[in-house]
Write a structure and sequence with these properties.
Blueprint: E1 5-10, H1 14-20, E2 28-34, E3 44-45, E4 48-51, E5 63-66, H2 71-80, E6 88-89, H3 91-105, E7 113-117, H4 119-123, E8 134-138, H5 144-157, E9 164-169, H6 194-200, H7 202-214, H8 222-228, H9 233-242, H10 250-261, H11 267-286, E10 290-295, H12 300-304, H13 308-325, E11 328-331, H14 351-366
Parallel strand pairs: 1-2, 1-5, 2-4, 5-6, 7-8, 7-9, 9-10, 10-11
Antiparallel strand pairs: 3-4
Helix pairs in contact: 5-11, 6-7
């Protein structure tokens, strides 16, 4: 008889509900939850008790799974309590670390199109509906630097006959640097291509990327993770993210997010990203690959509160690329073909919206 792993989940919010649904209950048993919120301590969730974190020093368990977007702070808290690193599953970091390797494993020799970009391109394109076989390497909060690094890695490491590169951009892309943003912990996702990052910008890697990578606990392999979670947990987690309805007021959230996105003004980052995109385009053209820029649609409240000055600046930059390199640009930001029903959250397309975008891409490729 195989004994089940005793698991404790840290966090009782929406993230814990998602992660709890991914656990392989055949081989694992959730014995309880812990939470820093005193109002939740002593309560019950999913039929299991909610404890104060201090009980961890007295409880017998095999692993504690961090189920919160505040995993960096919680990880530090657990280590300070003396919890051994090998008993902590920092699932958000594990997912981010493994998702790129998983994508690489999906690359086929007959891949025709490369897709890069941030979350808009990740969720807003359905590769299954595209007429060309593609690999979607767009990820949450991915910036132009990593678009270029990923493309360079793929084109130098695989023998592929890529014909098109679909480059997802947002109006604020030129002012966004992942390694210096509040999402900078996501740079651990790219640890597997660190040599390429060093080639592109050694100073950037040393100053901003390497320190964040070093904070990553030793990642576990898929065999271990598949023993705790369902074997398709990465795909299921992605699906659950797209069906997460946590926002209480979409209209207010969209207004505020638009102001945040279009309020960025980082001139050094702007110039760096222009250079990275130029290098990216040159690399593609050298390989005989046709680049296409795509800007995904946004909901009306987001569009109405986005700073028009940033839109003008973006279009000026893109038009120069379009003129210099004869690049096709698909700008759906204000497209009337999309309604608020095409979004699963504040600013990301749902499957219905992604289907519309994919059909538009097919039409462009056929023309």
């Amino acid at each position: 008889m195989i004994l089940k792993h005793k698991l404790i989940l840290f966090g009782t919010g929406s993230s814990s509900e998602k992660i709890q649904s991914l656990i392989n209950e055949k081989d694992n048993n959730i014995i309880g939850y812990v939470d820093n919120n005193v109002e939740k301590q002593g309560g019950v969730i999913f039929g299991r008790p909610i404890w104060h974190p201090s009980v961890l020093c007295d409880k017998e368990f095999d692993y504690i799974i961090i189920c919160s977007i505040y995993f960096t702070e919680i990880l530090s808290q657990l280590l300070e309590m003396g919890i051994q690193t090998n008993k902590i599953i920092n699932i958000y970091q594990e997912i981010r670390y493994n998702e790129l390797k998983l994508k690489f494993s999906e690359i086929k020799n007959d891949t025709d199109m490369l897709i890069t970009g941030m979350s808009y391109a990740r969720y807003g394109i359905d590769s299954k509906l595209l007429n060309l076989k593609s690999i979607n390497l767009a990820f949450n909060s991915q910036d132009i630097f990593y678009d270029y690094c990923l493309a360079k890695y793929i084109l130098e490491s695989y023998k592929l006959n890529i014909k098109y590169a679909l480059i997802g951009l947002a109006y604020f892309s030129f002012h966004f640097d992942l390694s210096q943003s509040k999402e900078r912990h996501l740079v651990t996702r790219y640890a597997v291509i660190k040599d390429i990052q060093k080639q592109v910008n050694q100073q950037k890697y040393d100053e901003f990327v390497k320190p964040n990578e070093e904070k990553m606990q030793h990642p576990r392999n898929f065999n271990f993770l598949n023993g705790v979670f369902e074997k398709t947990f990465l795909d299921k987690f992605d699906f659950l993210e797209q069906n997460d309805k946590n926002y209480r007021n979409f209209e207010i959230e969209r207004r505020d997010l638009a102001r945040v996105h279009s309020g960025k003004k980082y001139l050094k980052t702007l110039e760096e990203n222009k250079k990275y995109l130029d290098s990216y385009i040159r690399l593609l053209l050298e390989k005989g690959i046709k680049p296409i820029f795509i800007i995904h649609p946004q909901a009306c409240e987001y569009r109405e509160h986005f700073n028009p000055k940033m839109i003008g600046e973006f279009k000026e930059i893109i038009n120069k690329f379009k003129f210099n390199y004869n690049i096709s640009v698909v700008d759906l930001f204000s497209s009337n073909e999309f309604t608020n029903d095409d979004f699963f959250d504040v600013h990301h397309l749902n499957s219905q919206g992604a289907t519309k975008v994919s059909k538009i891409i097919n039409n462009i490729l056929e023309s």
